[in-house]
Amino acid sequence: MTTSRTREPSAALYAVTILTSAFLIFQVQPLISKSILPWFGGTPGVWTTCMLFFQVVLFAGYAYAHASIRWLPPRWQAGVHVAWLVTACAMLPIHADDAWKPVGNEIPTWRILGLLTATVGLPYFLLSATGPLLQAWFGQTRPSASPYRLYALSNIGSVLGLVTYPFLFEPWLDSTAQSAWWSVGFGVFALVCGGCAIDLALRGRKADSTDRPVSETTAPPTWNVFGLWFGLSAIASVMLLATTNQVCLDVAVIPFLWVLPLTLYLASFILCFDRAWWYPRQAYATAFAGAIVCLTLIMQAGGNAPLATQVIVHFTTLFLCCMVCHGELVRLRPAPQYLTTFYLASSAGGATGGLLVGVVAPLFFSNYLELPLALIAGCGIVLWVLLSDREALWIGKTPRFNWAYVFLAAWGGLRLIGIATATAGADELAATRNFYGVLRVIDVDVDDPSRAARRMVHGRIVHGQQFLAPDKVSQPTTYYGEKSGVGLALNALPANQPRRVGMVGLGVGTLATYGRPGDQFRFYEINPDVVRLAEEHFTFLRDSAAHVEHVLGDARLSLERETPQEFDLLVLDAFSSDSVPAHLLTVEAFEIYRKHLRPDGMLAFHISNRHFDLEPVIRGAAEHFGMQAWKVRSPAVVGYEAGFCEWMLVTQDASAWNSPDMNASLHSEPATSRASILWTDRFNHVVGVMK
Questions:
Q1: Where residue 354 sits, what CATH number does that domain have?
Q2: Quick one: 5 exposed, middle or buried, by C-beta within 10 A (0-12, 13-18, 19+)?
Q3: C-alpha to C-alpha distance for 473 and 514, rounded to whole angstroms
Q4: pLDDT, tens only, 461-496
Q5: Residue 231 within any structural domain of the chain
């Protein structure tokens, strides 16, 4: 009776420790990723690189757990782990040091990985090791109980950590408070984990074969099984990151859209590791094959498919793929004495998937090919698993082969191979990919000389266009026409003196066409490929009468380091894509802009955006500094297509509105009905300005 009474509380301690560690793991991921997002351009590549780091450290944590269980006696396991916990607590609180801010055009991937290692490396390493390590400790102290239910509990903690961040923590706490509370949580985790270590040191023993549940095989895993553990985990990981990349490209780089696919990924773990009946193999395999077909059609439709439909199909396919991969993973799980080997192989597959998407794909692909390739691999590996299991192919005594799955998988796979291997169209002049995404230069309407134009595109977003006809080649197009907000602002500047203009975001250099002799146009651009393509395939920059110069790197960081530039006009054109760099709209950012403006200078913000209403944010910052802000809405000149562009003009000097054209345009658009919003570096909630 004494043993039963003492073991029951300690068993609960294991559950609390695993739940807490999982919660903290998936709180710190969006927390630290969002805090460094402004330093690296606010692109989806930041989240992908962070996920790569977390997956690699997860593998390292699992490797440590495996080595500890295999080579150290229980008391040494407990002592070593407690020493690591004390060291990690000494490093709190977690905070990204400003010394890690990029200073030029260095490769962002390696700087992000170094920053994360120095900031959260050791705490995250210990949290990552907790799941397999404590499950093994649980097995050593309770050899008659299966530790795999603790894994499902771990994933429940993970989901709680994920879903509470964008809805509970991000909207109400600034980044400093979030970091402080997380550090307190880690301290609590260290205490309860230390309690588990004491329990192991006092009562730990190796599990005896006679104590194992009879339902779990004791045969050692073969290399074939080991390869399946690795491959299934890698495919699910690639699907997670590739799908997140694709959706963030089409919607926004915000924690909510990082959290949702990761939640689906973890939900599949919870269901599959909880009970076998959550994963009816035939049903999920067939549904996954059907989803692949639907996603293939969506991918071929491109921007013509409704955004909501794209998101639903992408996330449904991701969930079904993860259910199949993780369901098969659970079916292949070994006996508890091979538990850490199982987790080690699985985490190695996940880390490899992160490396493929975060490092390998940008180096070798000029487009986002990892998603179709992952789906092809998914078709292949699941078909292989099904073919290797007679029960999956034959139902009862009647030979009923699952032809539906085979047909759908084969058809979808062939279509995906066509997408992945398709060469560039005849009108595509260039395609390039780097950390910041995929850029293409294409010619449109080439059969009609009066309409023929050249465009730079990033996903669905047109980053600039130039007409090819000689009489139109210098015409400002897209969102920069004569009646646009920026066109009016440029023409409102004094005509009898040189103008000094700064521009955040180069595009194809369209604004350079407004340059006059003596003017100085200074472009700030974070993506070196944008500069290269603008100079190689467009003539706006080299034909400009103004003196044109480039500053490569994040615009805010560059302006922060520079001496006052005395701009007559500072143009910020980094918000028309769906990845909103919130760090360019905070109070601290406005303070930097004001430092670089002349007393009568003006700020021009391009806020045309399908999903976000940025006007309240700009009004909030303008009111904070006692400046006036007006909105200009005018027709866009994107070929001959209908469209509008929206600009916000902000100045300290009301005389800037005296131009008749300016005055008419400013008053043609009423003020927004939404209340002003004030963003700071420590608190900005992009979801709050969604349309």
A1: 1.20.1250
A2: exposed
A3: 13
A4: 788 899 999 989 999 988 888 888 899 899 888 878
A5: yes
Residue 526: give the domain boundaries.
479-689
Chain centroid to Cα 608, Å, comes to: 22
SS3 43: coil
DSSP 658: G
Nearest to 406 by CA among 298, 295, 319, 292: 292
End residue of a domain, out of 212, 237, 272 = 212
* Strand-strand pairing, 500-504 and 520-525: parallel
* Cα(667)–Cα(676) distance, integer angstroms: 19
Per-residue pLDDT of 380-427, as tens digits, reads 776 776 666 555 444 444 445 556 666 666 666 666 666 655 544 446
Contact 120, 32 (CB under 8 A): yes
The angle that helices 403-421 and 370-387 make with each other, rounded to 10 degrees, is 150
175/198 same-domain check: yes
In a domain? residue 628: yes
In single-letter form, the type of residue at position 492 comes to A
Quickly list DSSP for 312-362.
Answer: HHHHHHHHHHHHHHHHHHHHT---GGGHHHHHHHHHHHHHHHHHIIIIIHH
Residue type, 106: E
pLDDT band at 146 (very low <50, low <70, confident <90, very high): low
Between CA 145 and CA 448 the distance in angstroms is 75
255 lies in the same domain as 193: no
Q: How many domains does the chain have?
A: 3
CA distance 399 to 366: 46
Instruction: Report residue 120 CA to chain centroid gap.
Output: 18
DSSP 637: B
CA-based R_g, the chain, Å: 28
Which pLDDT score, from 0 to 100, does residue 410 have? 65
Higher pLDDT, 354 or 145: 354
In DSSP notation, 183-247 reads: HHHHHHHHHHHHHHHHHHHHH--PPPGGGS-TTS--SPPPHHHHHHHHHHHHHHHHHHHHHHHHH
pLDDT of residue 386: 64
User: 632-644: per-residue pLDDT in tens?
Assistant: 887 766 544 446 7
Q: Of 445, 412, 410, which is closest to residue 427 (Cα–Cα)?
A: 445
Tokens for 313?
């199909």
What separation in angstroms does the CA of 211 have from each of 142, 208, 337, 613?
Answer: 9, 5, 11, 62
Q: What is the reported pTM? A: 0.72
Query: Who wins on pLDDT, 166 or 654?
Result: 166
Task: Compare 110 and 247 and report the one with higher pLDDT.
Answer: 110
